[in-house]
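By convention, the C-alpha cell line describes the chain's fold. To illustrate:
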Amino acid sequence: MRVASHRLVDHEFRALEHFGGVIEPRFVVVHYTAGGSLDGSFAALDRVGLSAHVLLDRDGTVVQLVEFNRRAFHAGQSRWKGFTGLNHHSIGIEVCNYGWLLRRGDGRFQRPGETPVFEPEQVVVASHRNGWPRDVGWEIYPPKQLAALRELCAALLDAYPSIGEIVGHDDIAPERKQDPGPAMPMASLQHLTERGGAGDAGRTYEVIARNGLRLRAGPGTEHAVVAVMRAGQRVTVTDDQGVWYPVDLEGDGAIDGFAHGDFLRAV
C-alpha cells in the first residue's frame, strides 16, 4: 500500500461527512467495529455521526473514509502519554470484528441478539487486561485481515514520520473500551514503529500467540502443520518473506518451517 496526498493509492475512498480540521498524526489507533460487514459498519458510523479514517474488512478489503490529515471522530474521551483527545492526534482504523462473545451451553460462542454463533476454534478465550470482560471468547482476526492491517500501518508510518506509536482504543480509553481486545496481536503492530520492521534475517523472535503458533511446511495456511510453538518460545527468523517468516528452531541455520509474522515479536 502507498499513501499520496493523504489518500491510499488504488483503494476505494468512500467519504463520510463527519470529520474536522487538519491534524498532524502522532499515533495510529486500532479499533474493532463490534459488528459484521464493512458496509454495515460504514452505515452505522454514518448514522451516529462518527467516523474513522479506514475500515478494514475480514477479507483484507481496505476502504478509506476520511483523508489522513483530517480529524476523524473515532477515539472519544482519551489520553495517551501527555496527549488528550486523541482524535486531534491520531489516525483511526476500524477493523471489522465482533469482539467479545459469551460461551453458550453447547460450548459455542455468541453475544445473544447481536452476533452469529462462533465455533470454539474461531475464538480466543481470554480476560481483558483492563478488567472486563473476563473469561469470554474473542473473535479471531483472519490472517488476510491482519496482513492488510500490517501493510496499512507500514504505509502510514512511511507517509507520516510524525507517527511514533500504534495503540489500541483500549490503551487510550481503558476505563470504557475493550477494542481491539486480546485477539489482536498489538505487539506485532507496535514493532513496526521501530522503522526497521519485523522480518530481519537472523534476528531472534518470541512467539506471542497465547495458545501457541503453528509452524507450517510452507508460507501459507494451505501448507501442513509441522510443529506447534509454545507462547514465549524464542526462534530465529532466517529471511524476510513478507508476512510469512521462515523459522529456524534448532539454531543450525536450516529452515524448519514458516510462521505468520503477526504472532512473532523481535527480542
User: Anything to note?
Assistant: The domain at 203-266 is CATH 2.30.30.40 (SH3 type barrels.). DSSP finds four helices and 23 strands in the chain. Helices lie at 38-48, 143-159, 169-172, 186-191.
